[in-house]
Amino acid sequence: MGFVTGLCYLVALTLVGVYALFKVKFRYWKKRGIPHFEPRIPYGTLFRNGNKEQHITENLTEIYEAFKGKTPFAGAYFFTQALPIAVDLDFIQYVLVKDFKLFNDRGIYYNPKYDPLSLNMFNVKGNHWKRLRTKLTPTFTSGKMKFMYPTIVEVATRFDQTLSEAVRMGSVIEIKELLARFTTDVIGTCAFGIECNSLKDPNAEFRRMGRKFFAEPPLRTFGRTLVNQFPKLSIELGIKTTSTEVSSFFMGIVKETLEYREKNNIRRDDFMDLLIQLKRSSTADNEFSVVDVAAQAFLFFLAGFETSSTTMTFALYELALDTEIQDKARNEINEVLKKHNGKFTYEAMMDMKYLDCIINETLRKHPPVVVLMRVAEEDYPVPGTDKIVEKGQRIFIPAYSIHHDPDIYPNPEVFDPSRFEPEEIKKRHPMSFLGFGDGPRNCIGARFGQMQTRIGLVTLLRSYRFTPCNKTLIPMKYSRVFVLSPEGGMYLNVEKIN
Asked: d(Cα 433, Cα 442) in Å, to the nearest integer?
């Protein structure tokens, strides 16, 4: 047998083996009597209709709508990996809240040796997560928020000036990038005590690193697939989810800030100061190292600038499409400011109840994190059923799909802030809104994010009117990135109000 013939036989045998492996793996849910769509090789349940451009929100909503009311969870496959998709709100409450101790891990890849910034509170699990959560919770009290408030308002004033200059140059503005520059400067000041100057310079280092992290080049997309399928092998291979450039930049910034503050005995009531105090008080049994400081500061930066800017982007989009709601929000802002003698104080911000409804309705319709994940610590019999989630399985909780369920939110594609008036909230299941997650592992920075978003929207709505332009995405189309985002940016017509 010649070399070429032998090679052909080897390739054929390999393909047959791979095919057989998929067929065996794809029997998993059928053997357990769990309802599911038939998977396709190689993608599994994802893109099962052959549409690779389909967004994950569409995939998960199709599963959710097909199987809700019939089972606590449906079956799905990510390539060969079997995934339970939660489709019952009571089951979700067990996972996130009532039996949280059995589901405290998100199942997100992190690499202690090769990717130090991945050791942040969002990713880590078990005692490591619990220790970080306990230590960092004091940063986000209402008292701390009130202290940071003037700093954010000061950045918002610069934001207003930047937008005003942009409007003089032309009324069509790409608002998403401008909002990201605003939140980048806020986080840089509140977390690092550093003037990022993103509003003045779109290519400032902090902004450039934020863009780079959320970019999705093909190699990084492949890397994410690899770490999801083979996490242990990925750790041994040194696979990183943070680029070397981004990691080096943030490690360098944190080390410089630590050295400068410790050398000059500088105290600031900000996020970095708390991390420094934790590092100083750490012991051999309860260590908090420079890497820990950098990883948590990195998380605060990423979560703080991206989710808030995205929420404001979608809020302005919806208000541009419905000027009646926009005018009502602006009227509330003006009335509350008049009540507070024209001053935009912390108390004035907290009085703007309709604005809160707008923010929550934005998070319902366009949740930045479309799916929550939890891993079973042991075999888990679902209460009241004969179904079992097996140890190590990663449960997907489709927040976007729940938020768009017409049985929970009638006419879910309609933007209606009145859904979040207190009496309406009481009518719904506690798990029907997951804009900040829920349970002990919910978003620790929710208060900060809400405050930053309120300040940004008040600054804009009191001085500008937003309407669609010929470049506005109608209907909305999402890009394929980790945090929900409009494809190609967000262009709106912006008019200065005299």
From this structure: 12
